[in-house]
Design goal:
Pfam families: Sugar_tr. By secondary structure, this protein is mainly α. It has 20 helices and no strands. α6 crosses α18, α7 packs antiparallel against α17 and α16 packs antiparallel against α17. The longest helix has 33 residues.
Amino acid sequence: MSVPNPPRDASPPGQPPGQPKKAATAAWIGSALEYYDFFIYGSAAALIFPEVFFDDSDPATATLLSLATFGVAYAARPVGALFLGHYGDRVGRKKIMVFTLMLMGLSTFLIGCLPTRDQVGTLAPVLLVLCRVLQGISAAGEQASANSMTLEHAPSHRRGFFTSFTLSGTQGGQLLATLVFIPVAAMPEEQLLSWGWRVPFWMSVAVAVVGYVIRRKLDETPAFEQQTATEGVVKLPLVVLLREHWADVLRVVAGALVASVSTIFTVWALAYATSDSVGMSRTSMLWVAALANVVALAAIPLWATLSDRIGRRPVYLVGAAGSAVAMFAYLWAVSTGNFALTMLLGITAFGVVYSAANGVWPSFYGEMFPTRVRLSGVAIGTQIGFAVAGFAVTFAAQIAGPDGDDWTAVALFTAALCVPPVIAALSARETHRVPTELLGERTADGGVARSEKVTA
């Protein structure tokens, strides 16, 4: 899998040439490696963990509990966002990016070393949850710090494109996790459940080492350095954030609920498709996810580039409203058991339509806040919304009925979660033409700084 290569572009004033490209590349690779760790857990929670860590005498309950552990990380993310957002706005974006990657690598490796339920009883799922919490804390600071890093390094007229590399990296990590699990899932049952499932988790050691080498060489952003040199860092970013930017925090929380589309597609639909009621194979459904992510890798920067031309709001609205409709079609296709139809609509729903919102939100959310509280605002807002999205999988498993096959209820539930993002986008201001130094700043009359002047 090749790393996208951002084209040459003028660096913002005050930094050496090539920094936007370097920041975007570091964000892509780091996010890909970070979210490889995060997403292999989702595949394992749907396919492996119900039999390894929970009582498989009741498969439906075991699956429900396993999917609940997937959501635990999302519950931990708002707590991690409070701390990592605070320190990211005080000590810089780079240090948080390095810390989150190392924490994710360690916690994922430990999951691969855990004893099973047959070996230590109920202690096994307890240890699994603890490691999952550490994964959640790490993920809480990853995207917000990478988004802030790329946005503050990028030319003003191309912030959408450069910040989209964080989410392209996330999709790359999901693709890598899926490709790793395809041969693992094809292993004989006995080998798969005894040691095969552990291999993808052990590989996180290499992930952590590579990520550390890449990110430690990245320069801090000129916007943060200027903030530190002139006004100084804010002692309590959270206080300033909630006092002056609470409305935008709420918008980000509501907008982040669109991530439910991803978790339903990645985890619940996978478990549903491979259940007895549908009967599709693990390998075939993993290929659906893999090819949808390949398409998303191309679609995300294209949607982001469009947002640099016409604005964040219209592109984001296409993704949020379109996903509500597209997920109905995809889950219906899964219910038919038709692999070709499932592949086509899966690529359309997740690879194309959802990518419109997914590719634009890094710039859309980040541009709502000024430098001094940007990382806190994006981290806290997104992670609260993502916490709901994470547990959407658990809710979906409950509302799907005792047999887990009521896909229409799950589709309606997913569509309902797309409504708050649409409202948030409609109420937000357009920021794609506001110079970076004026983003989120208040005018003398209490309004928000606006400008049609674009600085390169």
